[in-house]
Amino acid sequence: MATDGRTEVPPGTLDMLLLKTLTLGALHGYGLAQHIQRVSQDVLQIEEGSLYPALQRLQLKGWVTSEWGQTPTNRRARYYRLTAAGRRQLGAEVASFERVTQAIGRVLRAV
Amino acid sequence: MGARAAVTALAALTRRAVGRARRDDLDAQLAEEMRLHLELLERDERARGLTTAEARDAARRRFGNVTRSREASRDVWSFAALESVLQDVRFGARALRRSPGYTAVVLLTLALGIGANTAVFSVVDAVLMRPLVYADADRLATVYMADSRGLVVGTPSYPEFHDLRAAATMTLGFARGAALTLRGAEGAERVLGAFVSDSFLATLGTKPALGRGFLPAEERAGGPAVVLLSHGLWAGRLGGDPSIVGRMLTLDDVAYTVVGVMPRGYLYPSFAQFWAPLAPRLAADPALDKRDYRADSRVIARLRPGTDSARAAAELRTLAAGLAEAYPATNRDLSATIVPVRQEVVGNIGPSLVMLWAAVGTLLLIACANVASLALVRGTARSHEVAVRAALGAGRWRVVRQFLVEHALLAVAGGALGTALAAAGVRALVAADPTRLPRLNEVTLDGRVLLFAAGVTVAATLLFGLAPALPAARRTLADVLRGGTRAGEARAARRARGALVAAEVALAVMLVAAAGLLARSFQRVLGVPLGFEPARVLTMRVEPPTARYASADAASALYRRIAERVGAIAGVERVAFTNHLPLTGFFITTPVRVDGRTPEDSQATAAIYRTATAGYFEAMGIRVVRGRGLTEADMSPGSMALVVNERFARTHWPGADPVGRRLTVFKQQIQRPDYGAAIDGEVVGVIADLRTQGPEQAAPPEVYVPFAANVWPHAFLVVRARTAPGPLTAAVRRAITDEDAAIPVGFLATGETVVNDVLASRRLDTGLLAVFAGVALALAATGIYGVLAYAVSRRRREIGVRLALGASPAGVVRLVLREAMVVVAAGLALGLLGAAWSARLLRGLLFEVEADDPAVLAGLVAILLLVAALAALVPGRRAARVDPAIALREA
What are phi and psi of B61, to 5 degrees? Predict the structure, then answer.
């Protein structure tokens, strides 16, 4: 398994990535990690354990809820789901992120 | 937006609280979640071709630190800051439990300090700070008639009040004092009250707490008999019955309807337990007609907004001058003055209370210094623990916070205990009421007092908590593990302790100086000759019902019969009657004409008017210095004998023999038809000056008239006993009831009691301050002892070396004591300076004593040296007993 070429998730963006991923539907922790890794084409490597504290924080803020369910292989797992407030928060964070990224891009291109 | 944010925050708080409660549950669930995650990761790795064991390791590597994830997840569901403080509290409580001696001493010291301050503050608040119950009380004042010097000679008469009211810009009200018999289920009781003009209630302004005031129909002549009750009378004698309004009360055999009850603290005039309209009484009361009857009344004035007392006083003076012109016979040379009601109510208790408050505050400072000293030592002892905590990653603030929390625990517990003590103490004080303190009935531990207690507690925490905490935090791990503290550190701590103890000593010296000055003043007051001998005197006021003893002859005959009966009791040496007794506050004045002329000096135109039966002077133990006293022969009609006191003689006939001089006074008993009639008499004797108004006031001029010439309807019976007066009380009362069972008796007291009552306030102040000074000395002594004991234990090795090298035990002791003596000397010097400064504040309370009274200073220094010597006793002995062999072996 190649670990080179894999970058850490920029700090502060984990929440945003999790919220975005959850727009696809309810997922459990493993599923969330796999999705992010796959879609980012293996560039973003998360220490998978750090998902859980992040998910707790999202639940505390009321952006995510969770409930126990069954996996396709009949194992018990906790599924996380986005709330309306979470959806709103995602919109805000994405907008903010894009604004910052564009600004950085402009600075880089200018030089 | 603000509301939305608040709702969001509240929702988050609720979620956090719920999560916190279910934390262990969530923890278990999370464990299961993570287990599944790891399994799935393992499966992936196995699919890539790794063995089971390799797959498990790879999965764990990808997952990361499981424990850290679990802990981080757990921490989300907690109130980090709060839980950290709670942890400090638990830890602090444990630490305190482990040193019960320290905890007990500090708790007790703080409880006493905070409790005493809270108790005194509750009294200061109620008496000095809280506003009076009357509306806008700062504009209320009492009007008095005064002489040209501005000294009060009496209260305005009813005709004068009318004239003043007509012309003055301020609102005026009139109250006529009365003592009526309240007849109820439990028997008859005399209550004092006032009959008031129609403007009276409006002038004071306060609405009744129950019921209503008087209606215009009730304030007319012939109106129905209605009465307003004071809170004290209602709550006490009438049981606080909420349905009292509308009930009937019998006062002097007349049925009054109760229309209302006034609020607590409404006491104007100060003796009033009831108020009733004056108009219906006008016809029946002869005093209300007399322009020159200036007693038994009160005139209250409400100043207009914008005027101050100076302007009001000027206005009254002008009006009085107008009256003097219009009525020269009665008002010549008379002026008027006003006294603000607040000043009258609070009296001169102010300086006394403030001094007590300052003293008790000083005591708290000493207590805090003592506790800080103890805490400092304790902090040093725990430095090892502090260093370990620092090594484990506790920040400096965390360490300081731990100490603060511990001290806060002590302070809160001490404050709670102290407040409970204060509550009990205040309740006891109000019940005992040793000095009849004004407004004492308003003293409670209400919100303001509790807030004060809390504030004092916080201040105490900071004062003695911060001091040791800060140096403790500065220590580093390396310092402590090296063993012992850095030398500089230790010296600084020692200096701090020394400074604390010096401060304690200084403050204690100030308190002892104040206590000494007050004690000396009290001693001087006790030494003032009163002019009579109270030791074997028993006195009471005989109050025959006017219905049956209305005429002077009937009353006179009754008194004679009572005197015979009482005189027959075994153990009675003398019996006499008089109109007013000294030291009871009762008096009336008469105009005087000396040698046929009115004196030019306006101050000399009046004298205290006393009537006395034969043998009065002997019964009271009053010395006759010239001529003779009053005899039985003087009691017959047509007698011209008058007796004056030395002050009167000095004023009118300085340097000459007063006996044989002519003197005219005027009958002052308003209820007799011959009120105001002239008594042309001759001075037959001079008595020694009597301190009628108490030992601290000079004797006023007095004239004594034979009792039978102007019979008083209620008179004071004076009995001189052969031995102790107390046991005769029952027999004397029986003699009176044998004569007539329906005669009430009041003001029953022995001579000692009467004198003690006058001294009560000063005695309380002196006593309290002595107690405070004693406690302060004890605290300072423990401080000195602490410093010395520590010094001895620290220098054991050095002492051992010196002893081994041949020093004498006495020399060693002197060496150790020198350290403490520096501190004590510094404290003494500072304290003496402070005492000199604070003596200025005491001046109002001192009597014939100067602030630098040598006896007090000498005593002060002696006491302090004695206390220091006592404190040094044990450490000194311990130093002398050091065994050099053992001490040297200690590494």
Answer: -65, -40
Chain-centroid distance, C-alpha B252: 37
pLDDT in tens, B819-858: 778 888 999 999 999 988 888 878 888 888 887 888 888 9
Average pLDDT over residues B554-577: 93
Contact list in A for residue B80 (CB cut-off 8 A) is none
d(CA B397, CA B399): 5
Cβ contact, residue pair A56, B77, below 8 Å:
yes
- The Cβ-side half-sphere exposure at B326, using a 13 Å CA radius, reads 11
Task: Specify the pLDDT at position B484.
Answer: 52
Say whether pLDDT at B27 is over 80.
yes
Does this model's pTM top 0.90? My answer is no
Residues of chain A positioned with their CB less than 8 A from the CB of B69: 49-50, 52-53
User: Does A60 contact B77 at a Cβ distance shorter than 8 Å?
Assistant: yes
Q: In A, what residues contact B, Cβ < 8 A?
A: 1, 28-30, 33, 47-50, 52-53, 55-57, 59-62, 68, 71, 75-78
Asked if A29 lies within 8 A of B33 by C-beta distance, the reply is yes
Q: Which residue of A has its CA nearest to B15?
A: A60
- Is the pLDDT at B436 greater than 80, yes or no? no
Residue A111 CB burial class (10 angstroms; 0-12, 13-18, ≥19) = exposed
Return the residue matching tokens 């153990």: B571
C-beta atoms of A53 and B75 within 8 A: yes
Res. A1: pLDDT tops 50 = no
- pLDDT tens for B491-543 read 777 788 888 889 999 999 999 999 999 999 999 999 898 999 999 999 999 98
A25 SS3 class: coil
